[in-house]
Amino acid sequence: EAKYKIVLLRHGESVWNKENRFTGWKDVQLSPKGIEEARSAGKTLKQNGYEFDVVYTSVLTRAIMTYNNLADELGCHHLPVIKHWRLNERHYGALQGLNKTETAEKHGEEQVKIWRRSYSTPPPALELDDERFPGHDKRYKHLPIQALPRTEALSDCVARVIPFWYDQIVPSVLAGKNVLVVAHGNSLRSIVKHVDNVSEQDIIGINIPTSVPLIYEFDANFKPIRNYYLADPEELKKKQEAVQNQGKKK
Ligand code: DG2
After folding, report:
1. Orientation angle between helical segments 109-117 and 100-107, nearest 10 degrees
2. Are 179 and 169 in contact (CB under 8 A)?
3. How many whole angstroms from 151 Cα to the centroid of ligand 1?
4. What is the CB neighbour count within 10 angstroms for residue 94?
5. Is 11 a catalytic residue?
6. pTM for the predicted model, two decimal places
């Protein structure tokens, strides 16, 4: 029987999702469609009777703005919002900024699939003097450079997300709070991989659509018992396939 519930949400479509560019830690805005998607997630949650006590987001604008737009619909701007770098998107290294289709045309679809979806092969790393290295961004000034990524495989992302999951998110849930987590395709895949103990092979096939609430239910021992998206199955499938197809040639 379900005792605890948590809602996971990827941000709405960003400007770089729309342009089909590898984003990672680059701080981009939501597209107009992304704002609509965020509002629509808020409406869906409201219609289904969801209410929250605390919200966790990354420190990236697209996740925070998704919450703000959702909160307009849900009327929950008063909630505490904890923003943490550990929920950031996987760092995409030297791929950040490149177009995914063009990268597939240049390096092949197989290579792009490995970079996007393999568990432990990271994209090429950035040099420390590259402006895309997080050490140049004031929001990470409290961290020494050795704690900041120059690239990340999904396995690296898991290693930095899960401490936050157990130190902050899970204790809130166990304390009886209704928790919403607004994050990213791969930081959420990291949570899914860990919680459901998904194999390195199977995680390749898991794509998280933009701004569709993903509900996880747990029993009294915090064992996951069920998860589902709040969406029409056909529409959900379309959105998941769209994510998968971003790495294809034209
Ligand atoms: C996307 C995910 O992250 O891309 O970094 O490009 O969730 O912040 O839009 P998000 C990015 P893929 O791994 O699906 O290519």
Report:
1. 130
2. yes
3. 14
4. 16
5. yes
6. 0.98
pLDDT-based confidence at residue 81 (cuts at 50, 70, 90): very high
Amino acid, res. 79: L
Nearest atom in ligand 1 to 246's CA: 15
74 C-alpha to ligand 1 centroid (Å): 26
**pLDDT for residue 150:** 98
Using a pLDDT cut of 70, give the percent of the chain over it: 100
- Please give the CATH topology (third level) of the domain spanning 4-245: Rossmann fold (3.40.50)
Average pLDDT (172-196) is 98
> What number is the average pLDDT over the span 45-60?
98
The CA-atom distances, in angstroms, between 135 and each of 129, 132, 143, 158 are 9, 8, 8, 21
Tell me how far apart the alpha carbons of residues 135 and 129 are, in angstroms, rounded to a whole number.
Answer: 9
Residue with tokens 């902050």: 168
Residue nearest to atom 2 of ligand 1 (CA): 185
Query: What Å distances lie between residue 2 and 5, 194, 217, 226, CA to CA?
Result: 7, 19, 6, 8
d(CA 227, CA 209): 15
CA of 19 relative to ligand 1 center, distance in Å = 12
Residue 213: per-residue pLDDT: 98
Which parts of the chain fold into alpha helices (H)?
Answer: 15-18, 32-47, 61-74, 100-107, 109-117, 154-164, 170-174, 185-195, 233-245
